[in-house]
Prior knowledge:
78% helix, flat
Amino acid sequence: MLTLAKYALLFALTALAEIVGCYLPWLVLKAGKSTWLLLPACVSLALFAWLLTLHPSAAGRTYAAYGGMYIAVALAWLRVVDGVALTSYDLLGAGLALAGMAVIALQPQG
């Protein structure tokens, strides 16, 4: 269970770094915010790339499993930052994506 929690936290931090790194330029381009937001966006995307290297699996497997957590974190961002209510379909989809992530990330090694 500790391994699952460790993987989930690492995947969640990775997803958050990617979302912040993409959201800040979106604010600059779509909402007319200061171009200074591009600096923390670059830092966040560099953090995202570094966090990906901490995952123990091969890169392709990491990206595949990461996708499930990205979906869940993106939906949480939608709710918390954008203030959009999630539907039961959002929650079901996130649950299925997280289950897929667990299957891929926790497969027996060897």
